[in-house]
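Per reviewer request, we include the raw input and output of the structure prediction for the construct analysed in the revised manuscript.
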Amino acid sequence: MPLILVTNDDGVSSEGIHALADAMRPLGDVLVVAPLQEASAIGHALTLRRPLRIETIRDQVYAVDGTPTDCVNLACAIILKNQMPDLVVSGINKGWNLGDDITYSGTVSGALEGALLGPPAIAVSLQRTRDAYDFGPSAAAAAIVARAVLTHGLPPRTFININAPSGTPKGLRVTTQA
């Protein structure tokens, strides 16, 4: 079975990461490694001036007291003992990551770090809402894309950035980042 690393920037306790992990489980073995606390708008930062701590939350779920980029690196180097996952999926973020916002996004940076290390990657974001978040439709869309990526792959150092509207999407549309 493929090994899927799931991370985010909203923290290991966020509803979005657990909805995403649940959607990935039919596709492979899922490992969740996410920041201990919310780390939004941190960009592609690495923690260099202090030691990082990995905390086991439960089986296959770990928290790191660092950034999403730290999480992906420690997952691959320490938790997986230098084994690369077959796919890195980051999200589900509360709020779209569009245009220039991707340069600030910890969600996008989690996927970017995965792609830079070698595996294909996906970032998943959901439109901000005043109502309760329903992560189900965006998680289902992510699973459709993840299945295609696991089957067909992506060019090296490439990731996909999914931005789902709130509610039930009417389909998928591929576009360029702009």
